[in-house]
Design a protein that fits this description.
heterodimer; A: 18% strand; B: 160 residues; alpha/beta; five-stranded parallel sheet
């Protein structure tokens, strides 16, 4: 695995042409972010083509640069965020609506939708239940949704800014705090980025032990998501069955890693702890049992015509749209996008023969998104039992290449590809940017909902099952 | 479906659930003011089959107007301070405020001070504190059971 490639510095004048040429050759968006302050902040762009990555940077002179959102529609939120946090104007991105910022003027963030019988339904930021905070504004005619405006970032804690000035090792708790449910994926992406700036390469034990905790995280998350999906269709026995399995999975986490959400299991340049054989063997058996019972419960669900009816055809996302809008994770795979960050970046983790999950009916609807998770649960249990049969040691890393000022890490979280970019001055973080799977999929959700009826929204939302904390940071 | 129900019934019998020692009930209104989603997961787990908070009469309600306890997670962000105050104002009295998790108590990595208005203590009077990152479902259940006593105590005094 090669280190993060050198940054290609591009004149502001040829920014669009450079990106356009790369996109024409098939490059896709990893991440776009701004760094530095006025008057001339830098705009950085990470593109990927298969396993190869290219990094670009340009100076936004007078805080202005040409937009690339028409070339890469997936960069919409990235540009809006760079404007709100670093004051960059993207010429041609009109209107550049507020995203992270919360201006009082509603015209600054609400899309005008007018006509006879058009109403607005406002939901949140406080939701009715145990749900994270965020605001949805539905523009509807009768029950039919015409348009959905998301207003997230109610939970914006400024974690990226809080990380600036810390040492690379001290950045881990910050990456972990972004989101509990994706804590491992986020902190491994961070650790990979930090190691890339330090010129370190993980050894086999470290790769395997990180893979173990990433898959333990996926196990309890997918069980949780299937439980939530059953709640979305009002099927309580399913909700409780998968919730009970999730609880057991979290108890496995507690037993072998010391924390129910696997906090503290990732460090920069080394592993956090090793697992003894007895612990590994009992975890192996419990994971196997959880996998068997989950498969059983899923089979029961697939034989229930009413559950099938409720999920089939709801909230469809076409394959072309999933690709164009940059959908990631189970959402993208449910639409037939045959991609998984675990198979793109094999060098830093341990996935010798994984293939992205393929649903039987990649229709991109709620049913397909449920099916992908059930299929991935099976894969995850197989990976885990494999790793637990010969448990990895603590692991460490060794110097493998020259240190660099910028590193990028990419990990498949339970919600999709999560990219972390770290800019460092020797051992000090100068800029940290985390673009999680949830962040990539939120704008996709907003585009899938129009056309559905309002009461279907909770179900479609649960089939995406995105974190607010991950996006808001 | 009957297979699942049967298994759940079996689980309910095998998992050690102590009988509720205290009578009474509490209606909770949860408000996330900037958590990492960990407290939400554990709160949901506490309502799941291994803990089953509802057997103690503790349930989550949709409106603050029906709530005895405002259960707050997360360090309070500047954006959530307003909605939090509105939810508190909508509650009937007597009312309790519970701060759930280290962030709500102002402990640990919180974020950029410019974006934060909390901890909860700075905005509302806190009656119940549950430490932990995140607190386990068992710790949440225990703290809420203690809150049952807090609610009951003044009523006993009324009777005297």
């Amino acid at each position: 695995m090669s280190p993060t490639p050198a940054i290609e510095h591009v004149d502001a004048g040829s920014w669009r042409a450079t990106v356009s040429a790369a996109v024409e050759r098939g490059a896709e968006l990893d991440c776009l972010w701004a760094a530095g302050g006025a008057p001339d902040p830098a705009v950085r762009l990470a593109l990927r083509q298969g396993a190869a990555r290219r990094l670009f940077s340009t100076r936004a002179e007078g805080s202005r640069v040409a937009t690339i959102v028409d070339l890469l529609p997936a960069a919409e939120w990235d540009e809006r965020e760079a404007h709100d946090t670093h004051g960059v104007r993207f010429d041609g991105h009109e209107p550049l609506r507020a995203l992270v910022a919360h201006p009082a003027d509603r015209a600054a963030w609400v899309t005008p939708v007018e006509g006879p019988d058009v109403h607005e339904v406002a939901v949140g930021p406080i939701h009715a239940g145990i749900i994270e905070s965020g605001h949805f504004r539905f523009h509807v005619v009768g029950e039919r949704v015409l348009h959905l405006d998301l207003r997230l970032f109610y939970k914006h804690r400024g974690l990226e800014r809080a990380a600036e000035g810390l040492t690379l090792a001290a950045g881990i708790p910050v990456a972990q705090r972004a989101c509990a449910a994706c804590a491992v994926a986020n902190s491994v992406a961070y650790a990979q980025a930090a190691e890339s700036t330090l010129g370190l390469q993980p050894d086999e034990d470290l790769r395997r032990s990180r893979t173990l905790v990433i898959e333990l995280e996926r196990l309890y998350n997918h069980l949780h998501d299937l439980s939530a999906l059953c709640a979305g269709i009002g099927f309580d026995p399913g909700t409780m069955t998968f919730a009970a399995l999730k609880e057991r999975a979290q108890r496995v986490n507690e037993r072998i890693a010391g924390h129910r959400f696997l906090f503290g299991t990732v460090r920069v340049g080394e592993g956090a702890r090793s697992i003894d054989d007895a612990g590994a063997s009992s975890a192996h058996d419990e994971v196997q049992a959880i996998g068997r019972e989950a498969a059983d419960a899923w089979r029961t669900l697939t034989f229930m015509a009413s559950a099938e009816d409720r999920m089939r055809g709801v909230g469809p996302l076409a394959k072309e749209d999933a690709e164009r809008w940059g959908a990631v994770g189970p959402v993208a795979r449910a639409s037939g996008v045959h991609r998984d960050a675990r198979t793109d970046e094999r060098g830093l983790l341990w996935y010798p023969d994984l293939q992205p999950a393929r649903p039987e009916h990649p229709a991109g609807d709620v049913a397909a998104r449920a099916e992908v998770r059930a299929a991935e649960l099976e894969q995850t249990c197989a990976i885990l039992t494999g790793l637990l049969t010969s448990p990895p040691g603590r692991g460490s890393s060794a110097a493998a290449h020259e240190p660099a000022s910028l590193g990028v890490g990419r990990v498949e979280s339970p919600r999709g590809a999560t990219v972390c970019c770290v800019e460092a001055d020797e051992d000090q973080i100068t800029r940290l940017h985390l673009r999680t799977g949830s962040y990539a999929n939120w704008p996709v959700l907003a585009r899938v909902v129009p056309g559905a009826i309002l009461p279907d929204f909770p179900l479609i939302n649960k089939s995406f099952e995105l974190c607010y904390a991950c996006a808001d940071r | 479906m009957f297979v699942l129900l049967k298994r759940l019934q079996h689980l309910r019998r095998t998992v050690a659930l102590p009988a509720p020692a205290r009578p009474g009930s509490l209606a909770l209104r949860h408000v996330d003011c900037g958590s990492c989603n960990g407290c939400e997961h554990e709160l949901t787990n506490a309502a799941g089959p291994h803990y089953d908070l509802e057997r103690f009469g503790i349930s989550v309600v949709a409106s603050p107007r029906h709530a005895d306890v405002l259960l707050i997670t997360g360090t309070v962000t500047t954006r959530m301070a307003g909605p939090l105050r509105a939810a508190y104002a909508a509650m009937p009295e007597p009312r309790l405020v519970a701060a759930l998790g280290d962030c709500a108590l102002g402990i640990g990595v919180l974020g950029d001070p410019d974006q934060l208005a909390g901890p909860v203590e700075d905005l509302l009077p806190v009656d119940v504190r549950v430490a932990g990152c995140p607190p386990t479902p068992a710790a949440i259940a225990e703290a809420l059971l203690d809150a049952l006593d807090l609610v009951r105590t003044p009523r006993r005094e009324d009777r005297r």
